[in-house]
Amino acid sequence: MNKLLSLSPKKLLRKTIIVSLGYERQNASLETVMNEFQSDKEEIQLAVLDALKVAHQYKATQFMVKIIMAQERSKSLRVRMNATRIVAGIYGRRAIPFLLNGLEDPDPRIVANTLETLSIYKDKALLPYFMKFLPVRKLSGAGQCFDGALLFQEDKRTIPANDNKGPSPARTCR
Predict the structure, then answer these.
(1) 35, 89, 164, 174: least surrounded by Cβ within 10 Å?
(2) Which positions ≥6 away from 16 have C-beta within 8 Å?
(3) What pTM does this model have?
């Protein structure tokens, strides 16, 4: 397979070979896959992530972490976010402390996508991290109101906030 890849096949065949190399789970194959990440094509980089996911090796996961932390240059934000989701899928809740680093990224798209990934866990302990990114507006009652949403502590429903300066008569915090 390594030799086939050096013959510069068309994109679909190239992606298939890359993913196949991930299933081989050999160091030489893994090195070849990681070298393919240098491609200037997003589809090839996504295929590399698929191969790294099925490789089930620490070195593969370490490479994805480098992508997430921008130590490896990804073609697009989509590639970086796919790497984040794969690592979250592999490690489950144990990935949360690592994923929280994405909230410190200077790119607001990374922060938004990190929040989206963290929301999958539905963990109450993560609420303070989410609340840090919502502008707080004090209204009456025990609930907490935000410019973007109303969060009821009892039932976790969200209701869009109105655009007026004051609270809507139909919607008040409890």
Answers:
(1) 164
(2) none
(3) 0.64
Could you report the per-residue pLDDT of 114-172, keeping only the tens digit for each?
888 888 888 999 999 999 988 766 555 555 444 444 343 333 434 344 444 444 444 44
d(CA 61, CA 2): 21
Residue 53, C-beta contacts closer than 8 angstroms, at least 6 positions apart: 22, 60, 86, 89, 90
Residues facing 136 on adjacent strands: 146
Residues 82, 51: contact at Cβ < 8 Å? no
The answer to whether 9 and 34 are in contact (CB under 8 A) is no
Cβ atoms of 52 and 60 within 8 Å: the answer is: yes
Question: How far apart are the C-alpha atoms of 118 and 130, rounded to whole Å?
Answer: 9
The residue ranges of every structural domain in the chain are 2-132, 134-174
What does the alpha-carbon distance between residue 44 and residue 49 come to, in Å, rounded to a whole number?
9
